[in-house]
Amino acid sequence: MSGEVEASSEEQQEMQDTVVSPEKAEEAKLKARYPHLGTRPGGSDLLRKRLQKGQKYFDSGDYNMAKAKMKNKQLPTAAVEKEEITGDHIPTPQDLPQRKQSLVASKLAV
Amino acid sequence: MSVSFGGDEGGVNLTNFVCTSHHTADIISTVEFNHSGELLATGDKGGRVVIFQQETENKSQPQCRSEYNVYSTFQSHEPEFDYLKSLEIEEKINKIRWLPQKNAAQFLLSTNDKTIKLWKISERDKRPEGYNLKEEDGRYRDASTITTLRVPVFRPMDLMVEASPRRVFANAHTYHINSISVNSDNETYLSADDLRINLWHLEITDRSFNIVDIKPANMEELTEVITAAEFHPHQCNTFVYSSSKGTIRLCDMRASALCDKHSKLFEEPEDPSNRSFFSEIISSISDVKFSHNGRYMMTRDYLSVKIWDLNMENRPVETYQVHEYLRSKLCSLYENDCIFDKFECCWNGNDSVVMTGSYNNFFRMLDRTQRRDVTLEASRESCKPRQVLKPRRVCAGGKRKKDEISVDSLDFNKKILHTAWHPQENIIAVATTNNLYIFQEKVN
């Protein structure tokens, strides 16, 4: 980058950094939005998430059910969005809402 | 030195490309020409391989406009379930590599995250007719009705292209396969995942040699992963692999059985005062390709393409900016995950031009010899017959000129990750998310 950065004092350098380097400006933006980012060794976190890419299922039964559901997606199911039932009566399996897929944690999650 | 073929004397006219074919597909995940360029293979997210064949209108004049039409389609990989880890194994085809042709059939290797398969593609254009014991439809004839003997003959039939799996190379990778590369000895090939590289013999499926292992004893100490690997085009003992930290290691298999110690380490020194949170992420190399002449290699990181001389490790000999205007957008590109997109790159036949993709269905051609570059767009509009692709310009900031597109209007969902260049002619294959475009340099 330009030679101006080297000549200034540390404070001035930081200010000039945001002016001179768009990358550092973007970093400041990111840190402002996610203050906890980078406090843990982010590199290895990102790498480990990369190594374990792919959707995790509870077991092979869960996996096969999910696959079957995807195949049947074309069929018009009259599945009404089931509301949570509390108190009135002991819920039966039909009353329970569908199990949500395990979410892959966002890399921005603390 | 540059070899003359097509276009200007020894050069490629980057602004003289027209669309010759266009196909719609499932999400394309890899594109590769075979060694003659007559066939073009694509792999998709659904585990299918589609092969296109060049139709030359006039075989004696190879510079005529040529189309690529569907030649064969087959299901290469199916989704699987890893029972130990409770993870799905995607059927998406990560890479396809052709073997050099040895006989009438064509062979290619296709791989998903865990399993590599060798496929044989063969043509059948005649079938035997006139059997004595069978009718033409296959039913057996009553032996007592047979009074004469005839010799069955081969008669022409409609061309049938058959794909059959000849070898399945499985269970050798704990992590996800990102590269395969056929050795120049035409007997072995390598497969690379995030932490290991294995060497296979094309005939042997029940064992492979591990030649690189960068897995640390303690996974907490993991700092980098392997992102791509390739064999040298002529030296069968040499291969390179790139890392997520922006380094490339060249290894010589004659030095030792396990090539953990590199023979050469290619790394460009970084100015520590410029280091930011994004530095390591954007320095991660997404693709590495040797030049055809074997003297150079090209790497693609998030914002640039670098050409390295194999004899100089401390810095690249050429650096080209692909889309520098994105440097001021890194924050949003990190949030929408685009900063992790893996772009590929490729050389033209005589190593004078390199090509790589970008966003908004843009792709870039960088002419090393004429010091020119162009940004083109692959879209429905570019398919108008005989219409030459118009160069595009992105306005980084300030006043937007007419015909320029501002950075903020770029569509980051329209990414061109996979491109390929015909080994001899100026024909290129460009894959957008769901479409394959073939462009050819127009010869007047």
Descriptive notes:
The complex is a heterodimer of chains A (110) and B (444). By secondary structure, chain A is mostly helical. Helices cover 45% and strands 0% of the residues of chain A. Chain A contains five helices and no strands. Chain A has helices at residues 4-7, 10-20, 22-33, 42-51, 60-71. Chain A is elongated and about 65 Å long. With 444 residues, chain B is mostly beta strands. Chain B has two helices and 32 strands. Chain B has helices at 279-283, 330-335, and strands at residues 17-24, 28-33, 39-44, 48-56, 66-75, 80-82, 87-89, 95-98, 106-111, 116-129, 153-169, 179-182, 188-192, 196-201, 204-213, 226-231, 238-243, 248-252, 264-266, 287-290, 296-300, 304-309, 318-321, 345-347, 353-357, 362-367, 372-377, 393-395, 404-406, 418-421, 427-431, 435-441. In chain B, the strands form nine sheets. A four-stranded antiparallel β-sheet of chain B has the order 1-32-31-30, with no helix packed on it. In chain B, a hairpin with a 5-residue loop joins strand 30 (418-421) and strand 31. Chain B is globular and about 95 Å long. The two termini of chain B are 25 Å apart. Residues 1-9 of chain B have low confidence and may be disordered. Chain A: Residues 1-46, 87-110 are annotated as: Disordered. Chain A: This is cAMP-regulated phosphoprotein 19. Chain A: Belongs to the endosulfine family. Chain A: It is found in: Cytoplasm. Chain A: Keywords: Cell cycle, Cell division, Cytoplasm, Mitosis, Phosphoprotein, Protein phosphatase inhibitor.
